[in-house]
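Much of our argument rests on the idea that a fold can be written as discrete symbols. The record that follows shows the chain in one-letter code together with its fold in token form.
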Amino acid sequence: MFAEYWDRTVEHRRSLPADSEEARVGAAVDIILEELADDPDEWWIVGPSSGEPQP
């Protein structure tokens, strides 16, 4: 569902100033979605591993 939303809102992201934080985040999400499309079975977990103590 998110990938469909992302595709439909591409024009909104293109209107952002190229040097803005929002544009940089959008470009990073584009890369992540492309990589996920190449290998949909690969998933990432962001944050401390389960063996690290939580603050």
Observations:
- The chain has a mean pLDDT of 82.
- The radius of gyration is 15 Å.
